Amino acid sequence: MRFVGKVLWFIESHFQKDMELDRIARACGVSRFHMCRGFISATGYSVMDYLRGRRLTEAARQLAAGAPSILDVALDAGYGSHEAFTRAFRDRFGVTPEAVRGGSAVDQTLLVEPIRMDRAAQKTTEIAEPRLEKGEAMTLVGLARRYRYQEVAGIPAQWTEFQAYEGTLGERPGLWYGLCDTFEEAEGTFRYMCGVRVDDPRDVPEALAVIKVPAQDYLVFAHTGHISGIRDTMNAIWSEGLPKSGYEPAENRPMFELYDEKFDPVTGHGGLEIWMPVKG
What we know:
Helix content: 25-40%
Strand order of the largest sheet: 1-6-8-7-3-4-2-5
Number of strands: 8
Order of helices and strands: HHHHHHHHEEHEEEEHEE
Mean pLDDT: 91
CATH architecture of the largest domain: Alpha-Beta Barrel
CATH superfamily of the largest domain: Regulatory factor, effector binding domain
Number of helices: 10
Number of domains: 2
Strand content: 15-25%
């Protein structure tokens, strides 16, 4: 069983106990950083988002069944007060616990059901052996936005919006970068920039960001299929590619997709590279 399956088993088995990310990672035999990034790639949820969603889903079911004490339900769901539980419950479902106990329905699409890692789900995309690169420090200029891990549908439109700036920034021609950084596990968010490399950025439009990427060792993985399959490749990198490589992922360092002129943004074909920062 891969570590993602172990994380899911651990959460479901220790559902009503206090959980810390470091404790879960130790139980699953991987670093906290590896666990968090790999779990997101495989499921679309951060570990804590999944845990909160599961607990609130079970709480909603208890309330719909007429649970006599909302405070007891709140404590079972890991909340220390009625107020904190009510705020989290309303933020997720749009109704209060009292309303659900009184007969109001919860939107079923907002429930988080257990993810089962069966044999079919554990199959991963075939990826070629990566190459090691010593990436030099560089400056990227581009359009940067924050996304929730499971809500990234806006990224293609972000690239389309950025096209209006291409050729006006003094960039190195023929290369485009999709950079991911500033991962916030508690919020379940990250920053994504679509941009270009600029050696001497000047007069950068106010709508764009400038990000300095430090020198870093990378494992470079190829994604050869359609762009829509990039999540499957990322899952394979975290589940198979990185563990087999013997390298540990570098924490709090940007990773990026690298596109060259072979990639066709209209058809989504042409392939790209995924540069994963690793410890030297």
